[in-house]
Amino acid sequence: MITLSLERKQSLGFQFLLEEMQPNCIYGQELVKNAAPYTRDEGEALEQELNRLSLLVKGYEEHRSFWDSVELVLMQMKEVRGSLKRGAEVVLTDLELFELKHFLLQWEKLFALLKREDAVLLPGIAIEDTVGALDLLDPEKRRLPGFYIFDCYAEDLKQVRDEKRHLEVVLRQEHEEEKRELLLRRRQEAVGQEEEIQQRIRGEITEKLRPYLAQISANCRAVGQLDFLLQKAKLARVYGGICPQLTEAELKLAELRHPQMEQQLKKKDKCFTPISFEMRPGTSVITGANMGGKSVALRTLALNVVLAQSGFFVYAKEARVPLFDDICIVAEEYQSMQNGLSSFGGEIMQLQHAIQAQKQGFCLLIFDELARGTNPDEGASIVRAVVRYLKERSVIAIFATHYDHVAEFADSHYQVRGLSQVDLPQLEQEIRSAQGQKGIDVIAKYMNYGIYQVHEKEECPRDAIHICGLLGLEAELMDLILQEEENESGLCSA
Question: In 3-state terms, the chain is what percent helix, strand and coil (to 5)?
């Protein structure tokens, strides 16, 4: 089962999208707050949710007035589940009966909308006709929002109220003290009788409502589903999502985007570079220099997989996604210092969790610069060993790494484009024209954060060394770096 803490949701950008949603009622708010991936056993339910969402997104604009009417009703829906729970055990109070009546009045309006000939039918959302329950709370069928125990509920109630009203009229006309005291005692007795009868009627109403409680509870769930679905549809329309196709094992995501990062970059007059992945069970490696966007690529991949498995549209041009039993992300930024562990120690604990998870089912495992917190020789050995270990397991595992001789053990290799397509002399000239730290901004402007699949024996770009030179690293030191590069030159295998 995939569990997402608030910290994980925030890091992926999932929480950002949830906070963009504006559910209309408490039932929808709860579903948004608790949004989580479906399990592999819930594949059929996920398919149905995605089908509903597709129908809604496709026809939303055409049926805009219909959905506006639905939302207006949803806004009036109040919390009644506590009253439903109490109603199964005790007699409900006037306030609780009032709240139930208010809910049922709004449900009657929603039920009428959903039963119209031109209504947009969303399969799988069960709606129950509870007019019988509403009639119990509104026997005169006035359909007014308040609740009152009417005389028509019981003949003896009418009689005692008539007696009370008669005594009140006589009291206003009587001035003799002894007679007034007698009338007041009689009125007090009538008030007591009235309350006893009303409590009896509350019990009778509650008892008659009990057969409807399960239906009303089901309607609460339906209200939440409708509200949640509407918010998903709006989110898909705002950010241009598409419906993912569920697969057995293939993971293919073309031109992936990350809405939160897009928004952040837009504020800086920059654009997000879409990325693409195509993987089957096994291991993949992303290489590239720092500043190249490997971590961004992994977060974008993880976010969209989580969205697909949670019943949302994904932000891509094409999306084929399998259902995972677990999604594990091993990265320094996720590790906890609460147990006094070093950065490296925290990573290893996460690695152990990932290894155990893959023994329990089909997993997506994401490793962002694994073992960066130890010396390079040992770190490279660890990463290569993990790649080899997971290669034949029931996983789709992807590693972002700067270590050499890792990709050669993986099933596929992706490379960040970086500065490979840039005119370096022109870039160098522009950096010289800039001053101080602005050189970094110039490099960032030209950095291509897209990724491409590396084919065997393809030469590997050396962006890290290019960046050192472009930023004016000491000439003598650069000469030594270039000498080392010549010693290590050859075909790309990292």
Answer: 55, 10, 30
The letter for the amino acid at 104 is L
Domains with residue ranges and CATH for the chain: 6-148+209-233 (1.10.1420.10), 240-488 (3.40.50.300)
Q: How many CB atoms lie within 10 A of CB 360?
A: 11
Tokens 């089957």: give the residue. 280
Could you tell me if 431 and 442 are in contact, meaning their C-beta atoms sit under 8 angstroms apart? Answer: yes
CA dist 367 → 127, 142, 483 (Å)? 45, 63, 31
Task: Tell me how far apart the alpha carbons of residues 334 and 321 are, in angstroms, rounded to a whole number.
Answer: 24
Distance separating alpha carbons of residues 399 and 384, to the nearest angstrom = 10
Name the phi and psi angles at 460, rounded to 5. Answer: -95, 130
Quote the CA–CA distance of 444 and 267 in Å, as a whole number.
15
**Per-range mean pLDDT, top range of 3-17, 285-299, 327-341, 428-442:** 3-17
pLDDT band at 4 (very low <50, low <70, confident <90, very high): confident
| Dihedral-angle region of residue 490 (phi above 0 means left; psi in -120 to 50 means alpha; beta otherwise) | left
Of the candidates 189, 164, 168, the residue with the CA atom closest to the CA atom of residue 180: 168
CA distance 59 to 379: 53
Neighbour tally for 335: CB within 10 Å: 20
**C-alpha dist (Å) from residue 372 to 162, 313, 348:** 86, 34, 11
Determine the pLDDT at residue 479.
74
Question: Edge to edge, what strands does the sheet with 363-368 contain?
Answer: 326-331, 363-368, 395-400, 282-287, 412-418, 448-453
Contact 302, 296 (CB under 8 A): no
Using the Cα atoms of residue 432, residue 262, residue 276 and residue 293 in order, give the sign of their dihedral: positive
Grouping H, G, I as helix, E, B as strand and the rest as coil, residue 314 is strand
Cα distances from 277 to residues 55, 304, 420, 474, in angstroms, run 27, 12, 20, 38
Cα-based distances in Å from 250 to 322, 348, 357, 362? 6, 28, 20, 12
Q: Which two tokens stand for residue 389?
A: 């270990």
CA dist., res. 114 & res. 100, Å (int): 20
Between 338 and 394, name the one with better pLDDT. Answer: 394
User: To which residue do tokens 């220099």 refer?
Assistant: 289
Q: Which two tokens stand for residue 135?
A: 């009639």
Residue 432 Cα distances to 89, 214, 446, angstroms: 79, 73, 15
The Cβ-side half-sphere exposure at 428, using a 13 Å CA radius, reads 10
> Cβ distance 238 to 22 under 8 Å?
no
